[in-house]
Design a protein that fits this description.
2 copies of one chain form a homodimer.
Chain A: E1 26-27, H1 33-43, E2 51-56, E3 59-65, H2 66-71, H3 78-81, E4 83-84, H4 95-102, E5 109-113, E6 119-124, H5 125-137, H6 139-143, H7 156-183, H8 185-190, H9 193-221, H10 230-263, H11 268-299, H12 308-331
Parallel strand pairs in A: 1-2
Antiparallel strand pairs in A: 2-3, 3-4, 5-6
Helix pairs in contact in A: 4-5, 7-12, 9-10, 9-11, 9-12, 10-11, 11-12
């Protein structure tokens, strides 16, 4: 009987190895059922025995459940009742990959073996599920540069250190949007009313892109987005961007037309048309970028959610503001 | 032996009841161990038997594990070896609340009883964990108006129907920001350079608020934010907003000073000061609003994540743009 200590002390965080504990009970394939029942009896004093792992030359060759022992002939050998060549996890497997392997198994405990099949220990299924839930709950934070380990109870100086760098990165990217607006200073000087619609365009494009992005991120997290589906998802989000842009563009154009008419700005109809065109174009592109950002981050070996919101917003700001002011400069006299 | 059919067909979604199946095996407290072992043997043909539930007058009075049966005297009655008054879930319990009750238990299967303690069925622990993981993975989507049931494979017309309403709501709120900018048309006409900094201010305030909001939402999801901690968390995020606003404000002010100097706009130093002041004020308020939005939504009985991003952005846009243009109107001649 071993105590519930980490079996692999130096394992990498967020891997199966970090959650592996020593196995409470192992037996040899030739052991008789009655002898194993005695072993379960004494092992049960200290630990919860769920399975008996059958080991030969340190290699895991089978697994026996309490139900198997209960229903077996007392003099039989374990070889006769064990499930041979059982499923096992390796310590290097990430928790996310382990969850995929576990999805149709749901054992309370999984054996952990090295590449040669030697038993290293066991990992409780609930520990994997908890770690997975913890990682899933961190995803919205990772999108805006909040570290996975930050909690509501983290002291503010540490939170500042963890979060501030991404805000400075965000600032640099916001300057890109500012530079785009700066390019059209002349247009803005002539038609000041355009300034009021900058947050409307940027906000709508950002939100449309963010909707596409969270659906993509969730597809990746739940392993529902194979590479073969990428083209289809890109087409879907482009179509959605087109229709969402058209419908919200018409609403926003109505707002622009009323605003321009009330303030006596000339070219109200053309300004409304610019709003529709800019909204359609920028929402269509935002949908595509929303799918692309997590996929590109993943392809680069990064976490697909990390700072994804910052990259997305930069793209949607630059495109939506550039398109809106560019079209206004072209079309409104 | 019953088949693995839903035990409570009309149960509400996202509750324990919806995941409850019939119990594979029940026994009476007076049943002898050897008779129960025979019952396990035949029940095991059709279903996976993990526990024997001991029932008296339909009420759940005990639970017996396979290990208990294995180690017991064959002639003993179940009363002698059962765990009496076992923990059970009720069908009305939400999956989220069930997860809290389960956190230190981790049984493979939980009994489900009505308020009177009558056994209705069992719910596998993995089913609760999966449902919880599914709900957690939907949170970023809910923040921007994406329905929990939308997947990457959802056809686009259905996605349009699900997502579009929130985009129209977002548009209405974006008009609030536009109206604020519109109030300062005269100021913008005099100092066109301010228009370029609108997306910078709005973007920074939005991101600072979003960081505070995701940490708050995660605290709620993982049940780490008791009511007594709210005042402390508000102070923390206000402090963070202050320092993040000051530091990014100084960076942005440097950008403004350079831009104003290069373009020959008068009052470069005062414009830079306006940027710092507006950034500090709006980031501080954004931090507080980021904590408040999910807490208010929860208090109102809504899901704390639903459309939270839209409410947050409206507040941060109005505050940051109003403060920036208001200070500019006041301080820059």
């Amino acid at each position: 009987v071993s105590s519930e200590e980490p079996a692999i002390p130096d394992a990498t965080e967020h891997t199966v190895g970090a959650l592996t504990v020593t196995a409470p009970l192992t037996a040899a394939p030739t052991d008789a059922v009655h002898a194993v029942i005695d072993a379960v009896r004494s092992a049960s004093q200290g630990r919860l025995v769920t399975y008996v792992y059958v080991v030969e030359d340190r290699r895991l060759v089978g697994v026996v459940t309490m139900r198997d022992l209960l229903l077996a002939d007392a003099s039989a050998a374990l070889t006769a009742i064990m499930l041979p060549d059982p499923f096992f996890l390796t310590p290097e497997t990430t928790v996310e990959d382990a969850m995929r392997a576990m999805v149709h198994r749901h054992y309370p405990v999984y054996p952990v073996c090295d590449a040669a099949g030697c038993l290293l220990g066991v990992v409780p299924g609930h520990a994997l599920f908890e770690e997975h839930a913890y990682e899933l709950s961190a995803q919205p934070g990772r999108m805006v540069g909040v570290d996975e380990d930050e909690q509501v109870s983290t002291p503010w100086p540490q939170s500042l250190k963890l979060r501030h760098p991404w805000l400075q990165v965000n600032l640099v990217t916001a300057f890109a949007a500012a530079a785009v607006v700066g390019l059209f200073e002349g247009t803005l000087e002539r038609i000041v009313i355009l300034a009021a619609f900058l947050p409307v365009l940027a906000g709508q494009a950002g939100n449309t892109g963010c909707q596409a992005m969270v659906v993509t991120l969730r597809g990746l997290a739940l392993d529902e987005l194979p590479r073969s589906a990428v083209a289809r998802v890109l087409r879907k989000e482009a179509t959605l961007g087109l229709f969402n842009g058209l419908l919200t563009g018409l609403s926003a154009a109505a707002g622009m037309w009323i605003y321009a008419t009330v303030t006596g700005t000339p070219g109200a109809a053309m300004l409304a048309a610019v709003v529709v065109l800019a909204m359609v174009g920028s929402c269509l592109l935002s949908g595509v970028v929303g799918v692309a950002v997590p996929l590109v981050l993943k392809r680069l070996g990064a976490d697909p959610a990390t700072a994804s919101s910052i990259f997305l917003t930069t793209a949607t700001d630059v495109v939506s503001l550039g398109l809106f002011l560019g079209l206004a400069a072209l079309l409104v006299a």
